[in-house]
Amino acid sequence: MLSFEAPEGAAPVQMQFEPGDLTNPNGDILPANRISVIPPQIQLEPGEATDVAVAVTIPDLSKPGEYHGRIACTGTDRTSVVVIFEVAGAQT
Question: Is there a contact between 30 and 56 (Cβ–Cβ < 8 Å)?
Fold first, then answer.
């Protein structure tokens, strides 16, 4: 989960989320088309806060380990959020 809050007394804030690829130190990639932000866009009134979920669909042959990347947030300013996901090894 990611949390966002609009400052009191400011104008409403609209944000849209654009995930990027996640990579591990070996260069393995979880492609951006496997990452979803739910909801993909939000509008916050002054003083309002909300959470968004980040869902990653892991391809079957993905190597275990820590993957990191960015989710771009467009709105009044362009910002990005760094995300880190741990891919577990195969379950036996």
Answer: yes
Nearest-angstrom CA–CA distance, 35 and 65: 17
Mind giving me the DSSP string for 27-88?
--EE-GGGEEEESSEEEE-TT-EEEEEEEE---TTPPPEEEEEEEEEESSS-EEEEEEEEEP
Burial class of 30 by CB neighbour count within 10 A (0 to 12, 13 to 18, 19+) = buried
pLDDT tens track for 12-70: 989 999 999 999 999 999 999 999 999 999 999 999 999 999 999 998 889 999 999 99
Where does the pLDDT of residue 90 fall: very low under 50, low under 70, confident under 90, or very high at 90 and above? low
Q: How many residues would you count in the chain? A: 92
User: pTM of the prediction?
Assistant: 0.81
Q: Sign of the C-alpha dihedral, residues 45, 46, 49, 53?
A: positive
